Amino acid sequence: MWTSTEIGIDLGTANILVYCKGKGIVLNEPSVVAINTDTNEVLAVGTDAKNMVGKTPANIIAVRPLRDGVISDYNMTSIMLKTVIKKVSKQLGLSFRKPNIVVCTPSGSTSVERRAIVDAVRSCGAKNVHLIEEPVAAAIGADLPVEEPIATVVVDIGGGTTEVAIISFGGVVSSNSVRIGGDKLDELIIQYVRKSYNVLIGERTAEQIKIEIGYAPIEHNELTMEVRGRDLVNGLPKTITLHSTEIQKALKAELLQLLEALRLTLEHCPAELSGDIVDQGVTLTGGGALLNGIQEWLTAEISVPVHIAHSPLESVAIGTGRSLKFIDKLQKASIS
C-alpha cells in the first residue's frame, strides 16, 4: 500500500530547509544555484554553489533565486526545488511519487508571489501544496501554543525579511513584515568597509564579520577581527582590522527599524491579549536571532521578556512540517 510522504519546506532567502515527517530536518543548504551562462547548464545547487560565490569565471554565475523571501527568478527556483526534492528522496531511500508539501511564505507576500511559489513546488511533482504563513510556522516550530487562545509574539529574522506577528487561536492577529534581514546587514557591512577604509570585501566575508563581531546596540567588550579585501585605490589585496563597535554603529539604523516594526505590531494588539504578552514574552527565531546581544537589547527596549527559540535557524522548517497535523484548523491561504 502506498502512503504519500509529507514534507515541509522552508524556502528561505538564505537557506532552504526540508523537514520530513518522522525524520526531522533532512536537508539544510544555502539557496544558491550555480549556472553556466553559455550552455544554461546547472552546475551546482546549495552548499557547492555557495562556495563558488565571487570565485567563478565570467561564464559561470552563482545566483540566489529568492530575494526578500519571495521568488525573484522563477526558473532557477524550480530547478533548485527539483534538485532538493531529488536529493531528499535519494537520501531517505524513497521513490515518493507525489508528496504532500507545505511551504511557508512571508505574511506580507502578495497573491501573485504566493501563486509563483505554489506553481514552482507543483512543477516538482507535488500532490497537494499548502501554504503557511512564516510566523505561524516559526511559532509551531518553537513549541509555542499556537492553537490556544493565548497571544504569542514571534519575531522571525530571516535572510531577506523580518516577520513580526502576534498569533492566537491558530491565526495571525496582527503582523508586520519589513525587508530587513541577514542580507541587508551584510550589505551594510560591505558599504561601511568600502566607505571607511576604501576596501572592497565580498558577501561571504561580510557574513563572517557579522557572525563574529556584529553586535546589537548594547554595551559589550570590544572585539577585533582581521579582514582581507581589495584596496580600491591601488587595486591590491589589503588586510585591515575591524572593531566590533564600528560594525555595531553600521548596523544600528537597520536594527532600529526592526525594533519599530515590533513596537508597531505590539501597539495593534487587542487589549485582551496584551496581558498574555507580558507573561509569555516575545520569541525570536531565524538566523538573525543569533546576532550577538539582540536578546538583551530587545528586552531592554520593549520591557517584555525576550526568548530565543530552541533552534532558531530550524524553527520555520520544523513548524512547516508539523503544521500538516492541523492544516485545516490553521487560518491561512491553502491552495490545493
From TrEMBL:
Gene3D superfamilies: 3.30.420.40. Keywords: ATP-binding, Cell shape, Cytoplasm, Nucleotide-binding. It is found in: Cytoplasm. The keyword rRNA processing does not apply. CDD domains: ASKHA_NBD_MreB-like. It holds the Pfam family MreB_Mbl. The keyword Cytoplasm applies. One of its GO terms (molecular function) is ATP binding. GO terms for biological process: cell morphogenesis; regulation of cell shape. GO terms for cellular component: cytoplasm. ATP binds at residues 13-15, 159-161, 207-210, 287-290. SUPFAM superfamilies: Actin-like ATPase domain. It comes from the Bacteria. Belongs to the FtsA/MreB family. Forms polymers. Forms membrane-associated dynamic filaments that are essential for cell shape determination. Acts by regulating cell wall synthesis and cell elongation, and thus cell shape. A feedback loop between cell geometry and MreB localization may maintain elongated cell shape by targeting cell wall growth to regions of negative cell wall curvature. This is Cell shape-determining protein MreB. The gene is mreB.
